[in-house]
Amino acid sequence: MQDVVRQFVNLLFPPLCLLCERTLVQGEKFMCTHCLASLPHSHLHEQRNEVLAQKLSAVLPVRFVLSYLLYQKSGSTQKLLQFLKYKNYPEVGRVIGRQFGGRLQEKGYGEAFDVVIPVPLHPKKQRQRGYNQSEEFAKGLSEVLEIPYTTDWVIRKEASSTQTRKSRLDRWLNVATIFDVPEQEKVKGKRILLVDDVVTTGATLEACATALLEGGCKELSVGAIAVA
Ligand SMILES: [Zn+2]
Question: Average pLDDT, whole number, for the chain?
Answer without folding.
Answer: 88
